[in-house]
Write a structure and sequence with these properties.
It contains one helix and 15 strands, in the order H-E-E-E-E-E-E-E-E-E-E-E-E-E-E-E. The strands form two sheets. It has a ten-stranded antiparallel beta barrel. The chain has a two-stranded antiparallel ribbon with strand order 7-8. The two termini are about 35 Å apart. It is mostly beta strands. A hairpin with a 2-residue loop joins strand 7 and strand 8. The chain has a single domain, classed as Lipocalin.
Amino acid sequence: MLLSFNKETTWLNRNKFNEWDYMKLLTHLGIILFSIVVFVPHLQAGLSVDFESGIVSNGYNDVRIPGDRGTDISLTDDLKSEKSGFWRLRLGMDLGQRHRLSFLVAPLRLNASGEIERNVEYNGVSFESGESLESRYRFDSYRLSYSYRLVQSSHLGFDIGLTAKIRDAAIEIKSGDKSSEKTNTGFVPLINFSLDWSFTPRLGLLVQGDALAAPQGRAEDVLIALYANASDSIRFRLGYRLLEGGADNDEVYNFTLVNYLGVGLSLNF
């Protein structure tokens, strides 16, 4: 899902981190966000923390790099894709009764391996037919969202707004001492929405997501979940999330569908 609305958006790659650097960065960010909520009392009114975790798997992941000359590869059909764990952390803040800001950190890693019975040209490197291949798919998302409560009642809430997303993505294929990695980092604007229907005082349905389609590509990240309110400030949920999208241009062809099954915990202050 190397969604790229503009080829120039890859400029951030010049300061590329390795995977361990990213994990340290995300861990430190999570500690900072948690500390803000727990240890700064005067900021607690109208704040929320949402954590989601579970199992993620690839529905499909079709790759051709370069987009105009590479070999078509399916990281789910040609190779065996592995399930993985995931986590997502969101910090939100109310700006009045109907306005809200939130910041999301959502890393993603998926691995696959196997043999492809044809020669493969990937990002300038040649792999022979029958070679044992390994792939690593990374799609890290950072999103700042504004939403407006369009409908507000005791049983129903509907929000709509805009999301500014930075996605840092990479697809690596390797065999023995040969490897090639395509990285792509850039900005993507999205439309966000949220439907919250409380069909009993304690139970409800949540549908929320970010999505946008354009001639250069598309992206959708949508959650459907059932939730239970343990109290006015604590909510648990169980749901399915779909992440889908991609781009088709001379530099990159990649379309991906990712399935999430996860549990979530929301704390409101």
